[in-house]
Amino acid sequence: ESGLASLALLSDPQEREMVQRHPVIAAMILEPIEQLQSALGYIKHHHEHFDGSGYPDSLKGEEIPLGARIICATEACDSMLSRRAYSAPKSAEEAIMELRRCSGSQFDPQVVEALVAVMKRAGQLTSRETEGVGRSLPELLEDLTGRVSTDQGNPRNSGLRNATGVEDGGAANT
Predict the structure, then answer these.
(1) How confident is the model at residue 18 (pLDDT cuts 50, 70, 90)?
(2) For residues 82 and 96, what is the distance between their CA atoms, to the nearest angstrom?
(3) Which of 4, 17, 52, 153 is deepest in the core (most CB within 10 A)?
(4) pTM given for the model
């Protein structure tokens, strides 16, 4: 899929596994920084897919912290709009079409709708590209903000498993 184009190019299983471990490693590196505790789950799970096909934990839907779902969609959008070694940049219209195509599988549909509204508000899209955005940006952001507040109490947003799958406190994470 669009957000994983570089990963799809990896044919060596060991190299692919190493790339897939980067969210966990990044979260572990940042874990000692007290000010980032609430963002660790977002970092660790930003490659999870809405349908459960992502990594590192194959989380699905609302199991994925909202911040991670937002990072997943915006990172993919940025990747599509930017020149990469493996692809030319897409137009904003092409990026939106791809985000919508992957909405519900790779991306949270509400996050895609909010991202399209943000891009429209920033003047990056025409009205034709935003057809189907049913709510205003303030409505979308209010809904997403409420869900972020709920995420703060989600145990997936704190406490990270180390490389052995055990919480830092020493108890097995079930």
Answers:
(1) confident
(2) 14
(3) 4
(4) 0.71
**Is residue 47 within 8 Å of 72, Cβ to Cβ?**
yes
Q: Which residue in the block uniquely carries the two structure tokens 């493996």?
A: 86
Q: How far is Cα 94 from Cα 85, in angstroms, rounded to an integer?
A: 18
What is the amino acid identity at position 101?
A: R
Which residue type, as a one-letter code, is found at position 106?
Q
- pLDDT tens per residue across span 118-170: 888 877 765 555 555 555 555 555 666 555 555 555 545 444 433 333 333 33
Residue 45 exposed, middle or buried by CB count within 10 Å (0-12, 13-18, 19+): buried
- Nearest alpha carbon to residue 114 among 92, 94, 96: 96
Q: Whole-angstrom Cα distance, residue 148 to residue 77? A: 21
Distance CA 79, CA 30 (A): 24
86: helix, strand or coil: coil
